[in-house]
Predict the structure.
Amino acid sequence: MEKPARPQNEAARLETLRALEVLDTQSEERFDRLTRLARHLFRVPIALVSLVDDERQWFKSCDGLEVSETPREVSFCGHAILQDEILLVPDATKDERFHDNPLVADDPSIRFYAGYPLRAPNGHKLGTLCLIDREPRALGVEELAILEDLGQMAQNELVSLELATTDPLTGLSNRRGFELIAGKAVAVCRRLERPVTLLYFDLNGFKQINDTLGHREGDRILIEVSRRLSENFRDSDVVARLGGDEFCVLLSAISREDVEVPLHRLESDLAKLTEDDPSRKALSFSVGKVEFDPDQHSSLNDLLHEADQRMYEHKRRTAR
């Protein structure tokens, strides 16, 4: 049996998946109707909307199977998210990757599998809409097109979930998305006694950019700032746009000294954003930096509130 490899962007992929806050939720008719339709159209005993988590594949919708999840290491969907097109396995017993897989050798005795990879707007593949049969079979061109159509419908339903936690302009987490991800990160670091630092950013002079150059140019600057924030901090750091020209980054398991390195890089990068036009003032930011202290911060909101206050203190000092 060949265990599925992990995508190169695995950390970011998992962050996107978990930001949806869909794992381990109740069944929903909008997904169930797709698996029912797929099962009916293709006359297969099993159809699934499967999401590939860190160590498991979990079924948001499962028509024809009694379990709600299986280990990722034996999953067909773990292989499907590694490619762009439909993963088609006509006869699993003749496929070197799956012939001795326990899902093939034992119940549910998979022989045929077809999985359409479900993508988030940022391109990360989150799982599949898949068909399973206990008999070998093939799909024709028209059937593959139908599966793709159904897969895109399932993908659109997942997108509608993501839009509630993603800033549409920059693609970063919005405030709700940040609170969902960062709250869990703080809780984990607290249990493991790992350090956590929150950085709260506000762009200096951004209102003047909007007033003099227009909102279109302002939006371009916000997109560029978002990109540089993502590039200068680690994949494991939680980067978000809270609204307007305010951003934040939650850094976990990092020393106080190491926090300064990406901050200095970011400062230099933002200054370069406007240096090509001498009529513009170099873009800069004010930042509030707070280390999580369980004796002082009972929640993520406490941390955000203190970081916000420190950001304004920094802005007042630098304005003098």
